[in-house]
Amino acid sequence: MSAAVAPTQTAGDASEAPILELKNVHTYYGHIHALQGISITVKRGEIVTLIGSNGAGKTTTLKTISGLLSPRTGTVTLEGKDISKAPAHALVRAGISHSPEGRRIFSRLTVLENLRMGGFTRSAAEIDEDLPHIFELFPRLKERIGQRGGSLSGGEQQMLAIGRAMMSRPRILLLDEPSLGLSPLLVQQIFAIIGEINSRGTTILLVEQNALQALTIANRGYVLQTGQVVLEGPSHELINDEMVRKAYLGEI
Description:
Elements: E1 4-5, E2 18-29, E3 32-43, E4 47-51, H1 58-66, E5 73-78, E6 81-82, H2 88-94, E7 96-99, H3 111-118, H4 124-137, H5 139-143, H6 154-166, E8 172-176, H7 184-199, E9 203-207, H8 211-217, E10 220-225, E11 228-234, H9 235-239, H10 242-248
Parallel strand pairs: 4-9, 4-10, 7-8, 8-9
Antiparallel strand pairs: 1-11, 2-3, 2-5, 5-6, 10-11
């Protein structure tokens, strides 16, 4: 196979030190062993994607990184600092922002109020400074600025979820299933925006059901199965890997 099985880590120079690293992380839901020793690195400026079937541990990985779950063993580090036991609100201040599966916007709040909530760790002046940048990325949100979040279309809600996450000025943005339930046209729009966010300097860790779309935009990828990383490599290698093509790209 073109991508490496049983992932190994190689030492790079200091400039290639990962912004985010998971080492041998084990996470549980009660007695359920959801993550079984996964190790993942994300370097500054990259888009890295996690692909796998439902139940593989992709969302659990993001929740473990963002502090919604704590690993029982193993470590999560942000720029070399152990954040394994840090609470979620502290991790937002540290530079991790999470746009969750299902969007989870505040349906009774307006678009503007949702965006301001995303910047809760920052001053009012900083929030006002950043709003124009969000509206530049998402012109539709500016058109809907006074509209309640629950009345937006699915695509608009996804834009709002990502925009809200960006309001904290994250060092790394965690995106969980940003194309879920969207039309093909909106999927293309969302991924174009993700590419633009990355080009402006935000590192991204992406969980996405559309494996081909994810691998097309990402620099590298990890394949998860039952809580373990079974394959990793540059995206162009994973796209051409026989197992990936059969299991996740719909080829026979």
